[in-house]
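Proteins fold reproducibly. Look at a sample protein:
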Amino acid sequence: MRGLDPKERALWNWANVDNLDEFLQEVYSYYIGKGIFCIALSRALNLLTIAFVIGFSTFLAGCVNYSKIRDYSKLRHSQKPTESEVDLMLSDVLVDQCVSRFSGLTLLVFMTFIAFYGWQVVRFGLGLSRLVAMNNFYTHLLNIPDAEVQSIPWNEVVSRISHLRETHPTTSLSSSTMRAGSQGNKLDAHDVANRIMRQENYLIALFNKDVLDLTIPLPGLRLRPPALTKTLEWNLTFSLLGFLFDRRGQVRRQFITNRNRGDLIEGLRRRFIFMAAVNAVFAPFIVVYLLLYSFFRYFEEYHKNPASLGSRQYTQFARWKFREFNELPHLFRRRCHESYPFAQRYLDQFPKERTAIVARFVSFIAGSFMAVLLLASVIDWDLVVHLYITPQYNVLFFITVFTAILAVSRGLVPDEQQTFEPEVLLQGVVERTHYLPEHWKGRFHSTEVHADFGSLYQLKISIFVSELLSVIVTPFVLYKSLPKSAPAIIDFFREFTVHVDGLGYVCSFAVFDFARHGNVKFGAPGGYRDGRMASKEGKMEQSLLGFRAANPDWHPADPVASLFLSRVAAAEATSPRHRQGAHASANGKSSGGGGGGGAASSFTPANSTLAQRSQLYNEAFERSISLAKPGNAAALQASAVKIGPRTHAKPKTLQAVDEDEDGLAATTRLSEADEEETGESGYADARFGRSTSLHHTTDGSAAGVAAGDETSLRGLLNHIGGRW
């Protein structure tokens, strides 16, 4: 390869990819890392951060003579200190050859950290060549220079990868991979997402089906929801996925059959117990590193802004419950960030009058003291440093303390001008997180729902304390709780794994198999009658809509999934409000006198934007999801259409198959009645104004939706929690 230019080298690497999953994961990591320079800089500074934490903490722990500092402090506050006795230099308190004087335990911790750092340096060096190769792939094969990686949308990257696969159909995998049955000529957005998230999709399904027992097996510590921390999550990923998947990231074939069920269960149990022992041995080292890193990381932030102590974020358990199948991390992160303002306002506005009364009192006292001290500092600045209120602490120290107390206490006092509307705010959270447990419905104002949501959206300081405690309790969870889940985990992988040509074995929820997992309560046509096979809370249906919204040019291969999408569009097309909106747009166009404003307000298939079409899907899905009410279940089943032989889609229509007109009319009437009960929402995701043209599909069993009337599903994400 020495004589090859960068483009030829990139083509050679593409032609010799023997693990497409790993390669696409690197492609995605390069994308979210924002290019070669950002990734290299981030990794280099991360190495420097680790080196600083190890070096500085070692210096503080073993190279400073703290007894001399204490003696100096006592002497400084004595009655008659001399000038020479008051002065103290840093060199006076340093320990000569401090490393050689370390105790055995301190030296062991130090050498462990040094070995860890050495391994990180080796990984950094080995990763540079792969980073350069990925830069060549983006620059020369995808025609995406490094400067554009930070701004180009991911679906455009996938589109270019698909085009590259079409132009080089026989060079993307080695012959051994083709013999394994994972070679396919097409590589669309769904295939890419399934390969990148092959393992994560199983974790999403495990949390959705509540298969994992993560309770702490100690009296009084059985938390609900379970306290899933990053430490426990890492152990779960290593123990579970490392056992169920091979080195190539593929599901091991022995898990697909029931032949070795007993041996597999016992093997998984032993793996959990082994990791419990490993965590128990390394717990002291992990605690020390977490404490030191967190101190250096967050002290400056909290010192600069004490009110940030009250900031919140979603727990790890909440994130796995919220995340959808085939939802890439950057899309999920954006969805969570959009919900934060609603979540914070929802928790803040709940009545907490007793806390507010105490906070007002503390704020008044702290503010009074701070005002006097600040006034004294204005009169004579020397008082700030040289006036000691106590023998050890001067005015500056107490100003800092009272400032922190005042900031925290004021943060606990609610805004008096704030209106109390928990239903509206939590609905905003539901529309963005797509999470609505059954016991929340109709009870958004209750303290039980408030406490339940608060356990998912916790204070950052509380999450940090949980991380520290997790180092202690994780061995108990791995030793006692998770082994009980081993039979259910093995059965789950056998029952919810399917083989797809061109992909291999994947989670059946991730392929949007409506014939097997469809749930009529969430608008699926027909659906599998075994409730045990359906995802909870309509997770699969939500995932399809979310994935379709993020990839508007993608069409599902499953005819039932295509019918589900077309029924949502058809429900909107037949709604009275849609006709009224079209009439209003027409009036706006005519009143505009042919100007630009009128043209912009009209809605036609040719010039509609994603934002306009999102609003239509918001309303359509609201009517579709309303049929989950018990009283509407019969009508929903009556309106479901059986999939017949393959037919070609009718040009310029919205339906993929012929639906029964009476059933559709009954569905529309029930939807309108429910709409009057639930009311309307003004939320619409208008952030994406890019006009998108959807390709017409002539195969009715695959997509069956004409391009002329197809609309984007992105806006459905706002209402997918349901208002039934």
Observations:
- Residues 174-183, 582-618, 623-724 have pLDDT under 50 and may be disordered.
- Strands lie at 312-314, 457-459, 497-500, 504-507.
- The radius of gyration is 30 Å.
- Residues 261-304 form the longest helix (44 residues).
